[in-house]
From TrEMBL:
One of its GO terms (biological process) is methylation. Transmembrane segments: none annotated. Pfam families: SpoU_methylase, SpoU_sub_bind. Residues 28-102 form the RNA 2-O ribose methyltransferase substrate binding domain. GO terms for cellular component: cytosol. This is 23S rRNA (Guanosine(2251)-2'-O)-methyltransferase RlmB. One of its GO terms (molecular function) is RNA methyltransferase activity. InterPro entries: Alpha/beta_knot_MTases, Ribosomal_eL30-like_sf, rRNA_MeTrfase_TrmH, SpoU_MeTrfase, SpoU_subst-bd, tRNA_m1G_MTases_N. Gene3D superfamilies: 3.30.1330.30, 3.40.1280.10. Keywords: Methyltransferase, Transferase. It comes from Rufibacter hautae.
Length: 270
């Protein structure tokens, strides 16, 4: 559910300055060779920062391996890297992920093989770390089989996210996908209905016609502007949470808890 009163911490109206990002609780790797070795060792990384304009062969290899592993890369000036660490970074800084990501196709195949109706949660540009942690906690409590996030434009899964999730991020699989449009197409081709939670919907979540049983993927939008139009038009079902107050918007973590509870309620009633 969109929350139009929320300002995206990365994309809000404040001027952009090269300040220390709130990722200091994540394990850092710096230097071209150490990052390359970590990638070869199969370490899961949250993000890699590379010096803009560098032509170093190791940097190019890091870029290729990161793209194969769907690890976000940012090309930044030297000032940005100096803000991240005072050590000799050699034009490269990376943060190791607090969790390991899971392949979505394998999870979907495994669920169907077990005769289970998948209940997935797809998050479009949820950038606030604590919101993400709270959503993960909701998802685990309500029986969601996996959370799907984009490789770019998503909250970094760090110590704050783990803490806010109350440990749920250690229990529920998280899938990081390169292209959510392709991901939604894959889910639909796999027989999973995409249910968008949006205030743009005509149907209320409480309407008798709203069916959240069977294989479904619940799609939630960003804190600032909701679900992207290109994803919204790919939804099989659009629902909104009925409200009678004057604000007419909910925090996305609260909205996710409401729709996931309704999905759980309907599934248990079958």
């Amino acid at each position: 559910m969109e929350n139009r009163n929320y300002r995206d911490r990365e994309g809000g109206g404040k001027p952009r300055h090269y300040t220390q990002p709130k990722v200091d609780k994540m394990e850092m790797v710096f230097g071209l060779r150490p990052i390359l070795e970590a990638l070869h060792a199969g370490k899961t990384m949250e993000k890699i920062y590379l010096l803009k304009g560098t032509k170093h062969s190791i940097s190019q290899e890091i870029t290729e391996l990161a793209r194969e592993a769907q690890i976000p890369i940012s090309l930044v000036p030297n000032e940005k890297l100096d803000q991240l660490t005072r050590k000799n970074h050699q034009g490269a800084v990376a943060y190791l992920s607090a969790i390991s990501y899971s392949p979505l196709d394998e999870i979907v195949a495994s669920l169907f093989e077990k005769g289970k109706d998948p209940l997935l949660l797809v998050l479009d540009r949820i950038t606030d770390v604590r919101n993400f942690g709270a959503i993960a906690r909701n998802a685990e409590c309500m029986g969601v089989d996996a959370i799907v996030i984009p490789s770019r434009g998503a909250a970094q899964i760090n110590a704050d996210a783990l803490k806010t999730s109350a440990g749920a991020l250690n229990l529920i699989p998280v899938c990081r996908e390169q292209n959510l449009k392709d991901t939604l197409h894959f889910l639909k081709q796999s027989g999973i209905r995409v249910v968008a939670c949006t205030e743009k919907a005509d149907d209320n979540l409480t309407d008798a016609a709203v069916d959240l049983t069977g294989p479904i993927a619940v799609l939630m939008g960003s804190e600032e502007d909701g679900i992207s139009p290109e994803y919204l038009k790919r939804a099989d079902v659009r629902v909104k949470i009925p409200m009678i107050g004057q604000v007419q918007s909910l925090n996305v973590s609260v909205a996710s808890g409401i729709i996931l509870y309704e999905a759980l309620r309907q599934r248990k009633a079958e």
